[in-house]
Structure formats: structure tokens, C-alpha cells
Design brief:
Helices cover 21% and strands 0% of the residues. By secondary structure, the chain is mainly α. The structure holds flavin-adenine dinucleotide.
Length: 108
């Protein structure tokens, strides 16, 4: 939280952690995000937020799937993600598996 106050903190080292804000305002209301702007996926997506471009009865989103079925999110932008390189890469790899599952269902 930003305040107008400053204070001195005695420290021997400093870890600058900047750049951890999601750039998701452009998503508008197309894809559900949490109160900090991180994209909701899987079980975190509220049932009434799920949409399906094919207008069918929407199923629940897969683990890394957003509120818009067929759209997936991986890495830091995802709400609740670990915020580490290895997990972002791993989620990207996992998402492909769910993309295939989504396409398989579509082909019926
Ligand atoms: C200061 C700092 C130190 C860190 N140190 C470590 C560490 O030591 N070890 C570790 O494992 N992790 C560390 N992390 C975390 C790590 O950097 C992230 O977890 C990782 O980079 C996430 O990868 P990502 O692909 O999800 O997101 P990013 O690496 O942030 O990549 C997202 C990309 O999308 C681009 N982008 C955003 N919006 C749009 C748009 N609308 N259109 C097109 N492109 C867009 C961005 O410019 C960016 O290039 C650190 C993070 C910070 C900020």
C-alpha cells in the first residue's frame, strides 16, 4: 500500500522485487480475473463466469483453463501461481495437455 511516509530500515542486503503486476486490463470482462487482476483458472473460476463461444452448456474449466472455455493461462499472470520460472514453464507444458483434451471433446 502506498503512503506518504518514509522510514529507514537497517539492512545488509536488498532484494528488489518489482514488475509483479499483471497487465490484464485489456482483457476487459472477457476473462474473469481476481481482485488484483490475475487470471482465474480451473476450480477458482466462479460457475456463473464460465462462457463457451459455442454457446453450449458450459462444462467446468480444466485446471489451467480460464472462464472462457478453450482459453488457457500459465505462469505469473495466473491467480494463485507460484511466481517462479520453473513453475511458469511447467504450467505452459501442462496447458498444452488440456488444450488437446479440449479439442478432443470438441471433435466429439
Ligand atoms: C525482480 C524479480 C526477481 C525474480 N527472481 C526469480 C528467481 O530468482 N527465480 C525464479 O524462479 N523466479 C524469479 N522471478 C519470477 C519469474 O521472473 C517469473 O515467475 C517468470 O518470469 C514468469 O514467467 P511468465 O512467462 O509467466 O511471465 P513473464 O516472464 O513476466 O512474461 C510475460 C511476458 O508477456 C509480455 N506481455 C504482457 N502483456 C502483454 C500483452 N498484452 N501482449 C504481449 N505481450 C505481453 C511481457 O512483456 C512479458 O515479456 C523473479 C521475478 C522478479 C520480478
Amino acid at each position: 500500500m502506498k503512503t506518504e511516509h518514509s522510514r529507514r530500515i537497517p539492512a545488509t542486503a536488498l532484494f528488489v522485487f518489482i514488475g509483479a503486476e499483471p497487465c490484464t486490463t485489456w482483457l476487459d470482462e472477457q476473462i474473469a480475473v481476481d481482485h488484483n487482476g490475475y487470471v482465474l483458472t480451473g476450480p477458482d473460476v466462479p460457475a456463473d463466469a464460465v462462457t463457451d463461444l459455442r454457446q453450449g452448456t458450459p462444462r467446468r474449466p480444466y485446471l489451467l483453463e480460464t472462464s472462457r472455455l478453450g482459453v488457457f493461462a500459465a505462469g505469473d499472470v495466473r491467480s494463485g501461481s507460484i511466481k517462479r520460472v520453473a513453475s511458469a514453464v511447467g504450467e505452459g507444458a501442462m496447458a498444452i495437455r488440456f488444450v488437446h483434451e479440449h479439442l478432443r471433446l470438441r471433435q466429439g
